[in-house]
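Session log. Operator J.P. requested a structure for one protein chain; no other inputs attached. Running the standard single-chain path with token output.
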Amino acid sequence: MKTRSRRDFIRTSSAALTAATVAGLNTRAFSDGAKKRPNLIFIMSDQMRGDAMGCTGSPDARTPRLDEMAAKGTLFERAFSNNPVCAPSRMSMFSGKYPHQVDRLANIKGKTSGYLNYEDSLGDFLKQQGYTTAYIGKNHTYEKPEIKHYDYVSLVGREPFRAYNAKVPPYWHCDTGLPREQCLPKENTDNAIDFMSKQGGSKPFFMHISYFNPHPPYMAPADVTKNYDAEKMTLPEYIEPSKLSQRLADHQKALHYDRISDETLKSTKKYYHAAVEWGVDYQVGRILDALKAQGLDQNTIVVFTADHGDFMGEYRMVRKAMYLYDALMHVPMIWYGPGSVKEGQRVSNLAQCLDIFPTLAAYAGGEPKAALEGRSLKPFLEGESIDEPDYAVVATAGYSDLPDNYFDNPEKPLDERTKIPFHSRVEYLTWKPEQRTAMARSKDWKLILNESQPAELYHMNGGTIERENVIDDPAHADVVKQLTAVIQKKWDAFA
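Structure written below.
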């Protein structure tokens, strides 16, 4: 396989988009004998780690359909989100912009930030290219009036038993109490299959499906969880948080993660993987089966990813937080499309969620009016090997520090007035976008810049776990300078 440089890659990707513009104009009417542009399906899970699948090495995961999808498509082994929590990540993907460029650095809104407008977003672009569009499942992306511009909309809230209330177990997991056939993932998938069945073929369609799982509370039906043995769950090697940053060490202590037992961590992992199996993997399989049954599989591109990850045992913590560590940033990314996407391919080049918009644009034809921050992955998906020694993924986010006297006045385990669980109350203290943080992440190195805290540098060595902050080692000064320049180029907040 011929290896190309990144400069060649950018040049040919741009040429492909330009050519796609012409092709899109010429094939809009789908004349007889012309190859139709593919249908496009974008599936997203919520809070799913990049290593939470069998095909990415998890000994605990049961993901036969995702593994099959990877075996018959292309798996990006090192794909990353551009923000560690839901709303900024999703808004980034659908806008093709970094979170700071859409004024959303955290789930908690800033003074002016809300959700996306429809204009110039992914749905708007594809509709302008002649696609029938559908948005199904969790929103957390668009302002509510804006999402109505999609041709088909089916939004669902959380099931009542998933609500954050005083009844959520202290360690965030339990059986749902309902069989899988009565839970929302089935409803989401039923609506998706129904939408596909009503497409006549005269126009291509774009469908986004967003599943809530495995977002906490980590829940699954009892007929699924009974098949998992908590004692057999594996725990990652423990790395002391203070080796990374004092902010992370304080976070661990504030949320009482320093007191968590192996038994509780293993039980939490059991429910996490059960939620992935029934709420994501099984449902993705149903979508793929419906494509084949409806005769759509040979002209459809499917991409599967997540908005962000989860600590899930790393540093003896669970859930998400406003940090840019790989536990939260490394996400699954699988592309599937018989005849269009190379089969059985594993790509080690870095990819990011921002690449999804330009990649779908390259397959759809046409060129977005606004410049996109990501790059088309289509050359990778067609089997090209590209050498990118200096390529780095960038992520941007916001955070707030714990109050100075927090450990003298900690949150009470139970607050009768608010009924908000302890873990949520503590997290709210650190999720306000009062300070800014950014990362530049290459294959071997990660630099994190923080407004109110010291910078951090990690030698990733091709892996996905930070072990020790080496920012003070003068031997790495050139790496720090190079990655700082990457961040500054994207965000002048650190210039």
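Operator note: The first helix runs from residue 6 to 27.
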